[in-house]
Amino acid sequence: FSVFYPFAQSIAFSAPSILWSWIIIGLISIVVVFLRKFSRWPLAMWLLFLLSIAPTFLNAVKGETVFFAVDRYAYLGSFWVFVLAAWCVGILSTRIHSKFRWVFTAALGTLVITLIVLAQKQTNVWASDEALYGNALENYPISREARLGLSIVYRESGRFAEEEKVLKDGMQYESYPGYLTGLGSLAARRGDTAQALNFYNQAKSIAPKNPEAFFFEAVLLESQGKLKEAMEGYNRAISLDETYVSALINRGSLKLDQGDTLGAEKDFRSALQWNPSTLEAHYNLFLLLEQAKNNDAAFLHLQKAFELDPKNSEIVLAYAYRVMERGQYIDARDAL
Fold it and tell me: What element of type H or E holds 20?
């Protein structure tokens, strides 16, 4: 999940944070080489540490911001740090004077308690999506992915005021199309069509090759009965991204309503090409093919739709009825 933690500087030795990291690594390397005169364990642990974190440094990639693509490997190096710490504790415990053993024991106990508290705190960060995204934004408020992820969590739980706030907070850092599209959808939800269209238009002007704004604008236009404009929006979104399954489904449904069954079938099948588990595509193909008297092919799509969502009442009833027609009464009973 390193994508949540953007590294905004360039990947170069001159970047301050990277430069300081190399300086610290160099100093520690000098120390462990010096300690080799007394024991080889520190050098061995240090080399194992560097080997463990190597994938993190070797897989650095740059996009609009910079991320360490495999930062989870950094945790591996911690193991050798603890091994080295245990070795140091073992050495000190045999050499410290008995009068000061209590000080040593107290210090060690304090360290253990501190590590337990830190471990619990880190565990809480991963307790839920909301906690994860919230922690990312607390440390890196410019993280687009974390902010959009948190907005989706709020949306799915019906906390629309919090969703709006987190998106508007993001606008303080940049006018990102994803934020604008989300704000547009919120405006559309509360019936403010003019503001929704304004947000979508801003998103399109900033990123004219991003299909999201075209799609959501088309959804809004379709809900207003502006079917021609909606169709143009879906066409534009799909021309920008032929794998946009939601746009293919909506365009296919619109074509089906307008009597273009061949065009609708083509869109539904295209959606399944990109995502074979698209419930709407399977169910719409069932309706379309059954209308065309292609009952066997229609039933296969209905069966797949039932497997994908066995709790959808409309699909369950349709499936149970068709199964009964085929004389499979036990299967029909089980479906219900």
Answer: helix 16-35
In a 3-state reduction of DSSP, which class is residue 112? Answer: helix
User: By percentage, how much of the chain surpasses pLDDT 70?
Assistant: 87
Phi first, then psi: what are they for 192, rounded to 5°? -90, 80
Helices (H), the chain: 16-35, 41-58, 74-95, 101-125, 129-139, 144-156, 160-171, 177-189, 193-206, 211-223, 227-240, 245-257, 261-274, 279-291, 295-308, 313-325, 329-335
Judge contact between 327 and 312, C-beta under 8 A: no
Question: For 223-257, how does the pLDDT look when each residue is reduced to its tens digit (9 = 90+)?
Answer: 999 999 999 999 999 999 999 999 999 999 999 99
Of 82, 90, 80, the C-alpha closest to 53 is: 80
The string of DSSP codes covering 51-73 is: HHHHHHHHTEEESSSEEETTGGG
